[in-house]
């Protein structure tokens, strides 16, 4: 699987964001920086480091959230705040939301 697709499949952001993260040198495998988004990597038993945190690869990364009362699951909420604001206290970038959701599960 391509390294950029590994990150995308694990919920680290858009395809473009994941390719940019890899190209910036933010991904390590076995303590070695991998900066080629199109590098083919073996996923069996893969543990990669992204932005300073180790992540085991899962074939299916499923995010399940319990939405609290008083929040909407919408990018354009009307009556209540969007539930994603709970996960992006420091920044509202899609990557920060994705990373925060992964840590919360």
Protein described:
Helix 1 (3-9) crosses helix 2. The protein starts with a helix and ends with a helix. The chain contains three helices and four strands, in the order H-H-E-E-E-E-H. It has 105 residues and is α+β, with helices and mostly antiparallel strands. A four-stranded antiparallel β-sheet has the order 2-1-3-4, with no helix packed on it.
How would you summarize what this structure contains?
The chain is of the alpha+beta class and 105 residues long.
How many β strands by DSSP?
Answer: 4
Topology as a string of helices (H) and strands (E): HHEEEEH
User: Which range best describes the helical content: under 10%, 10-25%, 25-40%, 40-55%, 55-70% or over 70%?
Assistant: 25-40%
How far is the first residue's CA from the last residue's CA? 24 Å
Q: What Rg is obtained from the alpha carbons, in whole angstroms?
A: 15 Å
Oligomer: single chain
Task: Work out the helix count.
Answer: 3
Shape summary: elongated
Main sheet summary: 4 strands, antiparallel
Average pLDDT metric: 81
Could you list the spans in which at least 5 consecutive residues all have pLDDT below 50? none
Strand order of the largest sheet: 2-1-3-4
Percent strand equals 5-15%
Label the structural class. Answer: alpha+beta
